[in-house]
Amino acid sequence: MPELPEVETTRRGIAPHVEGREIVEVIVRQPRLRLPVPNDLVERLVGARIGGLSRRAKYLLVPVQAEDAASASLLWHLGMSGSLRIARLGELPKKHDHVDLVLDDGAILRYHDPRRFGFVDWLQGDAARDPRLARLGPEPLSEAFDGERLHALSRGRRLAVKPFLMDNAVVVGVGNIYAAEALFLAGIDPRRAAGRISLARYRRLAAAVREVLAAAITQGGTTLRDFVGGTGEPGYFAQRLNVYGRDGAPCRRCGAELRLVILGQRASVFCAACQR
DNA sequence: ATAGGCTCCTGCAAGC
DNA sequence: TGCTTGCAGGAGCCTA
C-alpha cells in the first residue's frame, strides 16, 4: 500500500540505478492495469535515455529522452499494491511482474502489482500540464501546506475532516493510514465537520501530517537496501501505528478502547477520549 | 459546488 | 478441509 513515503522511498532507491541509462528492451507481460499500458510504449521507450526522477503526490515521474524527439515522461502510479525494484539481468519474473524496462548495463527496472490498481502512462511534453497533476494541492512537506491553508479551504464545508484531509486538491499524499495517524496526534475527532475546526487546531493538524510523513520517509530509508536489493517490500509496517488497524485495542495514550467508524467508505479508527 | 457512492483487482482472513 | 464472503486501498467518475 504505497503512500507518499513509500513512493518517495522507491524514487530514492531506484534513481541511482536508472538515471542516465538507456532503455534497451521493454517487456509488457500484463497491459491491463488501472489504465491500459499505451500500445506504443515499447517502441517509444526502446533507445530512449532516462533523466532525473521526480515525484509529485504519489506519482513517480520518469523523464525519457529519445534522439531527436520532443521531451516526454512516464507517469507511474503504484496504486495500492505496486512496487518498482531493480532486478538483475536473467532474474526470472515472478507472478504479477507486469512490466520490465531493461537497461543498457543489464539492470532491469521491474514493476510488480498484484492488484493492478497502478498504471504507467506516457506523457508528451510538459508533465505538469497533465490534468492529473495540474489540479493537485501542495506537497505536505512543502511550505505551501500549513494550518492556514486547511482552515481557509474548509470554511463552510460539512465534510468530515478525515476525508477532507485525504482530498488531493487540499493536500496530496495523505492516504487513509497517515490521515488516521495525524488526526490522532492532533487530537481531532475524524468525524468532525471540516468547517468547524479552529485555525489553532488546523495548525496542530498540519504539523502532525508533516511529522508522520517525515518519520515514515526516514523509516523507509532504513529499509532502502533490502527494498532495492530484492525483497521488494518497503518497511511500511515497521513503523509504530497508534490507531490504524487497531480498532478494539487500547489507546496507547489513555487506554480507552479504540473505535472504528466508516468515513468516505474508509475505515477510520480513533480514540473517542483523546480525539475531540 | 459539494458530498457521497461506485469501480477497478487480487490476496488474505474469517466464517460456515 | 474446502468453500464463500468480505475487506483492503487511490483516485477517477458518476449522480443527486
UniProtKB/TrEMBL annotation:
<dbReference type="GO" id="GO:0140078">
    <property type="term" value="F:class I DNA-(apurinic or apyrimidinic site) endonuclease activity"/>
</dbReference>
<keyword id="KW-0227">DNA damage</keyword>
<comment type="function">
    <text>Involved in base excision repair of DNA damaged by oxidation or by mutagenic agents. Acts as DNA glycosylase that recognizes and removes damaged bases. Has a preference for oxidized purines, such as 7,8-dihydro-8-oxoguanine (8-oxoG). Has AP (apurinic/apyrimidinic) lyase activity and introduces nicks in the DNA strand. Cleaves the DNA backbone by beta-delta elimination to generate a single-strand break at the site of the removed base with both 3'- and 5'-phosphates.</text>
</comment>
<feature type="binding site">
    <location>
        <position position="157"/>
    </location>
    <ligand>
        <name>DNA</name>
    </ligand>
</feature>
<dbReference type="InterPro" id="IPR010979">
    <property type="entry name" value="Ribosomal_uS13-like_H2TH"/>
</dbReference>
<feature type="binding site">
    <location>
        <position position="115"/>
    </location>
    <ligand>
        <name>DNA</name>
    </ligand>
</feature>
<keyword id="KW-0234">DNA repair</keyword>
<feature type="active site" description="Proton donor">
    <location>
        <position position="3"/>
    </location>
</feature>
<feature type="domain" description="FPG-type">
    <location>
        <begin position="242"/>
        <end position="276"/>
    </location>
</feature>
<keyword id="KW-0456">Lyase</keyword>
<keyword id="KW-0862">Zinc</keyword>
<dbReference type="GO" id="GO:0008270">
    <property type="term" value="F:zinc ion binding"/>
</dbReference>
<feature type="binding site">
    <location>
        <position position="96"/>
    </location>
    <ligand>
        <name>DNA</name>
    </ligand>
</feature>
<feature type="active site" description="Proton donor; for beta-elimination activity">
    <location>
        <position position="58"/>
    </location>
</feature>
<dbReference type="InterPro" id="IPR010663">
    <property type="entry name" value="Znf_FPG/IleRS"/>
</dbReference>
<protein>
    <recommendedName>
        <fullName>Formamidopyrimidine-DNA glycosylase</fullName>
        <ecNumber>3.2.2.23</ecNumber>
        <ecNumber>4.2.99.18</ecNumber>
    </recommendedName>
</protein>
<feature type="active site" description="Schiff-base intermediate with DNA">
    <location>
        <position position="2"/>
    </location>
</feature>
<keyword id="KW-0511">Multifunctional enzyme</keyword>
<dbReference type="InterPro" id="IPR015886">
    <property type="entry name" value="H2TH_FPG"/>
</dbReference>
<dbReference type="InterPro" id="IPR000214">
    <property type="entry name" value="Znf_DNA_glyclase/AP_lyase"/>
</dbReference>
<comment type="similarity">
    <text>Belongs to the FPG family.</text>
</comment>
<keyword id="KW-0378">Hydrolase</keyword>
<dbReference type="GO" id="GO:0006284">
    <property type="term" value="P:base-excision repair"/>
</dbReference>
<dbReference type="InterPro" id="IPR015887">
    <property type="entry name" value="DNA_glyclase_Znf_dom_DNA_BS"/>
</dbReference>
<dbReference type="GO" id="GO:0003684">
    <property type="term" value="F:damaged DNA binding"/>
</dbReference>
<dbReference type="Pfam" id="PF01149">
    <property type="entry name" value="Fapy_DNA_glyco"/>
</dbReference>
<keyword id="KW-0479">Metal-binding</keyword>
<comment type="subunit">
    <text>Monomer.</text>
</comment>
<keyword id="KW-0863">Zinc-finger</keyword>
<dbReference type="Pfam" id="PF06831">
    <property type="entry name" value="H2TH"/>
</dbReference>
<feature type="active site" description="Proton donor; for delta-elimination activity">
    <location>
        <position position="266"/>
    </location>
</feature>
<feature type="domain" description="Formamidopyrimidine-DNA glycosylase catalytic">
    <location>
        <begin position="2"/>
        <end position="118"/>
    </location>
</feature>
<dbReference type="InterPro" id="IPR012319">
    <property type="entry name" value="FPG_cat"/>
</dbReference>
<dbReference type="InterPro" id="IPR035937">
    <property type="entry name" value="FPG_N"/>
</dbReference>
<keyword id="KW-0326">Glycosidase</keyword>
<dbReference type="Pfam" id="PF06827">
    <property type="entry name" value="zf-FPG_IleRS"/>
</dbReference>
<dbReference type="InterPro" id="IPR020629">
    <property type="entry name" value="FPG_Glyclase"/>
</dbReference>
<keyword id="KW-0238">DNA-binding</keyword>
<dbReference type="GO" id="GO:0034039">
    <property type="term" value="F:8-oxo-7,8-dihydroguanine DNA N-glycosylase activity"/>
</dbReference>
